[in-house]
Amino acid sequence: MDYINAFWVGGLICVVAQILIDKTNMTPARILVLYVVIGTILGGIGIYDKLVDFAGAGASVPLVGFGNVLAKGVMKAVDANGLIGVITGGTAAAAGGIAAAIFFGFLVALIFDPKAKK
């Protein structure tokens, strides 16, 4: 059942983004930012953790989950370090994911030969 919940929750998140792309004038970049902000807000008020408990990777992997990680990191850093945690907490919490994205992006750039669209 865990796999099914992860599939339909992750799919629903993607379907909402696709509807926003198709039915509004929002650019994909604005939708991505919207998703991160929504994840941060829901994580900050404690709602998103319940969704992650229910859907697992279906809720934690998309961009909304990234916003949740940022919110949790900031809250933890503020508790430990005070006001400076507002600046450092999100970056420290998401550092592994950010480093992996940079590393694998670089690796793919080395393997493949990019070409400009014509």
From TrEMBL:
InterPro entries for the chain: Spore_V_AE, SpoVA
Transmembrane segments: 6-22, 29-48, 83-112
Keywords, ordered alphabetically: Membrane, Transmembrane, Transmembrane helix
Protein's UniProt keywords contain Transmembrane: yes
Domain of life: Bacteria
PANTHER family noted in UniProt: STAGE V SPORULATION PROTEIN AC-RELATED, STAGE V SPORULATION PROTEIN AEB
Matches recorded under NCBIfam families: spore_V_AE
Name of the featured protein: Stage V sporulation protein AE
Organism: Monoglobus pectinilyticus
